[in-house]
Design a protein that fits this description.
- By secondary structure, the protein is an alpha/beta fold.
- Helices cover 28% and strands 25% of the residues.
- It is globular.
- The termini are far apart.
């Protein structure tokens, strides 16, 4: 299984902090946002490579960062060739770009690189192999306002996804979908042809929504919380909560 990290965004909401530096490599105590995630994923036996997709502006910074890492699995940095937020490919196209360039034909764990998790991805991987299907995650979100800004799923009693809606004005459930996915080898042809068949390009949830409509998907209910770093305030809040200092 490949671990594919989508990290080609420009994090414009963090202002000067990420103007010339990638958000995933911001410090959280003695580590980084991305480092904390890879520390967990690297221990999953099924994972054999970390693939980090970034943009041309930040690729040299990731290349330098890799030189100081000592993970069990090799790390491959993919440069998508873009240099500005206005010319970005979008998360779905970045994933397709890496699949084509690296000839990926095996199971994939696909993750966004701006979250701190309070659970292990191993639980998610085990769930996907138990179900034998591609999978998404979900968590209970009581806020209607927040549900209107994310993906929302309807599940049956076996956690099979019956419906998925992106940013619904009238959410049918309180099950929200964070940006973590498993796409099994048997579904990769669907993934490869998703955009040409009408899938949205920008948000990774666009692909999950498309896949729900074209194959069987299950949703793993998160066993603990996550912290989404999307602004300066939430970054410093994460530092205070998970790191010892801001250095």
């Amino acid at each position: 299984m490949k671990n594919v990290v989508i990290a080609a965004g420009y994090a414009t909401r963090l202002g000067e902090l990420t103007k010339n530096f990638p958000k995933p490599l911001l410090k959280i105590g003695n580590s980084t946002i991305l480092g904390r995630m890879l520390d967990d994923i690297d221990r999953i036996p099924e994972i054999d490579e970390h693939i980090i997709i970034t943009n041309h502006k930040f690729a040299p910074i990731f290349d330098e960062w890799v030189n100081g890492q000592h993970y069990r699995c090799p790390i491959t940095i993919m440069d998508d060739g873009t240099e500005t937020n206005e010319t970005r490919l979008g998360a779905v196209c970045d994933l397709l770009f890496s699949m084509e360039k690296l000839d990926i034909y095996e199971d994939m764990l696909v993750v966004a690189a701006d979250n701190i998790l309070e659970f292990s991805f191993k639980e998610f991987v085990d769930f996907a192999y138990q179900k034998g299907t591609s999978c998404i995650m979900c968590h209970e979100q009581p806020s209607i306002e927040k549900l209107q800004r994310t993906g929302v799923v309807v599940l049956d009693d076996n956690q099979k996804v019956l419906e998925m809606a992106e940013k619904p004005q009238e959410p049918k459930t309180h099950w929200a979908v964070p940006p973590f996915y498993i796409y099994l080898k048997k579904d990769l042809d669907l993934v490869r042809h998703s955009v040409e068949n009408g899938c949205g390009k920008d948000a990774p949830g666009n692909l999950a929504h498309y896949m729900v409509e074209h194959t069987t998907m299950h949703a793993w209910k998160m066993s603990a919380g996550r912290f989404d770093i999307g602004s300066l305030d939430t970054y410093y809040e994460a530092v205070d909560k998970y790191g010892k200092d801001r250095s």
